[in-house]
Design brief:
five-stranded mixed beta sheet; Nucleotidyltransferase, domain 5; 2 domains; alpha/beta; single chain; 39% helix
């Protein structure tokens, strides 16, 4: 099976070609620099960029894979959740390709695809020019990435990104149950908004990660919302508010680089502790022996290190999505679509619409 997948749920335009569990190409074009000027993603601008970039990105993906459109056996695209106006561009384009080629079409839940990204492996990245003449968010791998489900096992999955934070019990392939999620701000949103309070450029998460390495995570004691609650939900709005008041009450703090690093380290420590401890606790309760993590915040080095430490000390196997597959990408959309098609999942009608608020069940 050779499948073309498209992802346009937010501010990254991506296309990938998947064949028999191998990712033949995964082209990602990021709009981060465009939206940085506004301190966040502007939906209308994102949609315009998708319109401009989708065709060359898809052509680049097909070219890198050595595939012509007539060789495709199926087409897939992100159906939701995401920004409606952004989703619409990729979803309708993919439906049009499937209709023109008279091939099966599969709409994919973006969050469900994240559940399977930790099972996609590749080799170290090498530099690659952008098909659009600019920077590429995801660089092409020297060898083909592939999905390895031979040792797939029940797992507790942490999906943590700018818009979502959730714990999902994956009982078996294509069978899962959401245990808890964000009741207000997601972890990634907390990183970005607290970073903005410090005067860091959008997106602030990566900058906090870098500055935190030079800081003392115990310098300032910030709240750990819902850490001791028995549920599996997350809340980070209180932490964001606490940082706001702390900066207000210490107006000279941001004039000292050392204190900024300490502040970043302390904020990161609070977020990471909540994510890791609640994940470990849920995994113990559910009786699984494997933990996975994916989503953009999984790129955070502090989170990755603490998850590794906690899993090792508690006897859990850990699978982290590779960093180039943590953020939005079409490779994970294509891999999941292929697994669903192989499992004879019902095909949606080509008349189906996007689902911006599609919640993972």
């Amino acid at each position: 099976m050779t499948l073309l997948a498209i992802e346009t749920s937010c501010d990254e335009t991506s296309a990938a070609v998947v064949r028999d569990g191998k990712v033949l190409s995964n082209v990602v074009f990021s709009q981060i620099k465009l939206h940085a000027e506004y301190g966040g993603v502007v939906p209308e601008l994102a949609a315009r960029e998708h319109l401009k970039n989708l065709l060359p990105v898809a052509q680049a993906a097909l070219s890198e894979a050595g595939i012509s459109p007539v060789q495709l056996d199926a087409v897939a695209a992100t159906q939701g959740p995401g920004l409606g106006i952004a989703l619409l561009i990729g979803f309708k384009a993919a439906q049009a390709v499937a209709f023109a080629l008279d091939k099966p079409f599969m709409g994919i839940n973006h969050h469900e695809a994240h559940l399977y990204s930790p099972w996609i492996h590749s080799v170290p990245e090498v530099a690659s020019p952008s098909p659009l003449g600019g920077e590429r968010a995801g660089e092409r791998d020297e060898l083909l990435p592939f999905a390895d489900f031979t040792d797939f096992q029940p797992n507790l999955s942490l999906i943590v990104s700018g818009g979502h934070t959730m714990l999902v019990l994956v009982e078996s392939e294509l069978k899962h149950r959401v245990l808890g999620g964000t009741i207000d701000d997601a972890a990634g949103e907390c990183f970005d908004k607290t970073g903005k309070l410090m005067g860091l450029a959008y997106p602030a998460g990566p900058a906090i990660d870098q500055l935190a390495e030079q800081g003392n995570p115990k310098a300032y004691d910030f709240p750990r919302p819902l850490l001791h609650d028995a549920n599996d939900d997350f809340s980070f709005s209180g932490l964001k508010t606490s940082v706001r008041y702390f900066i207000r009450d210490h107006p000279t703090l941001l004039d000292d680089q050392k204190q900024i690093c300490d502040l970043c380290a302390s904020v990161q420590a609070a977020i990471v502790e909540v994510l890791v401890k609640k994940t470990i606790r849920a995994a113990k309760r559910e009786g699984v022996r494997c933990i996975t993590a994916s989503g953009g915040v999984t790129c955070n080095r502090g989170l990755r290190a603490e998850l590794e430490r906690a899993c090792k000390s508690n006897g859990f196997a850990l699978r982290l999505a590779e960093k180039n597959l943590c953020t939005d990408n079409a490779a994970m959309i294509g891999i999941l679509a292929e697994r669903k098609l192989m499992a004879k999942a019902p095909l949606p009608a080509l008349s189906e619409e996007i689902q911006p608020g599609w919640q993972l069940a």
